[in-house]
UniProtKB/TrEMBL annotation:
Catalyzes the sequential NAD-dependent oxidations of L-histidinol to L-histidinaldehyde and then to L-histidine. GO terms for biological process: L-histidine biosynthetic process. SUPFAM superfamilies: ALDH-like. Pathway: Amino-acid biosynthesis; L-histidine biosynthesis; L-histidine from 5-phospho-alpha-D-ribose 1-diphosphate: step 9/9. The keyword Metal-binding applies. InterPro entries: Ald_DH/histidinol_DH, Histidinol_DH_CS, Histidinol_DH_monofunct, Hstdl_DH. The lineage of its organism: Bacteria, Pseudomonadati, Thermodesulfobacteriota, Desulfuromonadia, Geobacterales. It comes from Geotalea daltonii (strain DSM 22248 / JCM 15807 / FRC-32). Zn(2+) binds at Q259, H262, D361, H420. GO terms for cellular component: cytosol. This is Histidinol dehydrogenase.
């Protein structure tokens, strides 16, 4: 962890190491992922099987055994406690309710005589959702991806999730069933992304791939974009906390660690106007690290990509945050609503001392699949929009064309496109 003061001359250099997180790893990873995608494209199922054996230590004898069966779903429900199912159902309901509000309807406007214009909203036919499974299992990510897809009306939801050692997490399967997932394959990493993008004899090709994942998954999504749609780059988790010296250092330390425990590449940063508060948070993190079951991942993340930064003022802290564009931003200040309008770049914003980021991870309602690595400058959270596409609708009656036709011909002639002009003028009275 770095303890820094934003006003020091050395700050930019010291902080650059934390920011360079994705670039450093990206260079090494890209070639590996390019090779995996090429292998899956040329050898299909055989390559998927080879990589799954290698990276996930799965002893599957044929690619068919990579699909989760109805028997396995039933076994999962038998193994999961009723209160676990109840909690997952609550999350499904709340996430569905939030995403219903994002629904956009097809519309047609008849404001002008003889002309109808509009937009038709069509759900995607088949999507692939990636549910991470390397270092932890994420029933919540199943819900966050599958529920909006189903609310949007997607025809078929294909889920992929790696199962290290072949052990499939029963909660992930229960969440898949409760969220309406249609088929589940126990594959992960770049090979799963490639299989969904190009299709194999067994894995169906999809129109779009959504969902978070580690650096291999994020890189693969970037590389297959164009062949399929992707939602965003949702890579290793991040949290930035803005603080004004108010609140409880132990709570903020816990919030920082909640993201550090995801991945050694996760990044947790506190920026506070109160140096003494920052020191107390740093001490708390040390204390709490030793009590975590995932201590080694969280410690590595905190030591490499963690920081406590002292700023001269709240506006300075806000400017810094807008520059970083964090995936998760906590406004742990006395009056979070007062500074909310100044936040320009963040995947999700958590207000006040009683809104831990984990509330958003599980069941507040908004999606937890969020842009990382500074991409919140231009990407939005996963939403219903990701699961539909829009077509423009244009209708002119004869009267409508007669009214506007001459101007169309005019512009076509300005562009020197004679055939365009004639396609209109031939119809004009
Ligand atoms: N943004 C979000 O919404 C969100 C939600 C949950 C998790 N996350 C993030 O997702 C990530 C999950 O990562 P994970 O590792 O647990 O699971 P993962 O499923 O993303 O990755 C596991 C896969 O990575 C591949 N892989 C691992 N090492 C490799 C290597 N050396 N070469 C090639 N491929 C390799 C394997 O194929 C394996 O199946 C974490 O970074 C976490 O922070 C983000
Ligand atoms: N914080 C993760 C998004 O970066 C989502 C998640 C799932 N489970 C726990 N957390
Ligand atoms: Zn989390």
């Amino acid at each position: 962890m770095k303890f820094l003061d934003i006003r020091d001359n050395s700050f930019e250099d010291a902080f650059a190491a934390i920011l360079a997180r994705s670039e450093e790893t990206g260079r090494d990873v890209e070639q590996i992922v390019v090779d995996i995608i090429a292998e899956v494209r040329s050898r299909g199922d055989a390559a998927v099987l080879d990589y799954t054996r290698r990276f996930d230590r799965l002893e599957a004898d044929s690619v068919h055994s990579l699909e989760v069966t109805e028997v396995e779903f039933n076994e999962a429900f038998a193994r999961v406690a009723d209160e676990d199912i109840a909690a997952l159902k609550l999350a499904v309901e709340r996430v569905a309710r939030f995403h219903q509000k994002q629904k956009q309807e097809t519309w047609l406007s008849t404001d002008e005589p003889d002309i109808m214009l509009g937009q038709m909203v069509t759900p995607l036919q088949r999507v692939g959702i990636y549910v991470p499974g390397g270092k932890a299992s994420y029933p919540s990510s199943v819900i966050m991806n599958a529920v909006p897809a189903k609310v949007a009306g997607v025809g078929e939801v294909i889920m992929v999730a790696p199962t290290p050692g072949g052990e499939i997490n029963p909660h992930v399967l229960v969440a898949a069933r409760l969220s309406g997932v249609d088929r589940v394959f126990r594959i992960g990493g770049a090979q799963a992304v490639a299989a969904l993008a190009y299709g194999t004899a067994t894995i169906p090709k999809v129109a779009k791939i959504t969902g978070p994942g580690n650096i291999y998954v994020a890189t693969a999504k970037k590389l297959v974009f164009g062949q399929v749609g992707i939602d965003m780059i949702a890579g290793p988790s991040e949290i930035l906390v803005i603080n004004d010296g108010s609140g409880n250092p132990a709570h903020i330390a816990a919030d920082l660690l909640s993201q550090a425990e995801h991945d050694e590449l996760a990044s947790s940063i506190l920026i506070t106007t109160d140096r003494a508060f920052g020191e107390r948070v740093a001490e708390e993190v040390e204390l709490q690290l030793g009590q975590l079951s995932r201590e080694s991942i969280a410690r590595k993340s905190w030591e490499t990509y963690g920081a406590v930064i002292v700023s001269g003022s709240l506006p300075e802290a806000i400017d810094f945050s807008n520059r970083i564009a964090p995936e998760h931003l906590e406004l742990a200040v006395t009056d979070p609503f007062a500074i909310l309008p100044q936040i320009r770049n963040a995947g999700a914003i958590f207000l006040g001392h009683f809104t831990p980021e984990a509330a958003g991870d599980y069941l507040a309602g908004p999606n937890h699949t969020l842009p990382t690595g500074g991409t919140a400058r231009f990407f939005s959270p996963l939403s219903l929009d990701d699961f539909v596409k829009k077509s423009s609708i244009v209708y002119f009656s004869e009267g409508g064309l007669n009214r506007l036709g001459r101007s169309i011909v005019h512009i076509a002639q300005l562009e020197g496109l004679e055939a365009h002009a004639k396609s209109v003028s031939k119809r004009l009275k």
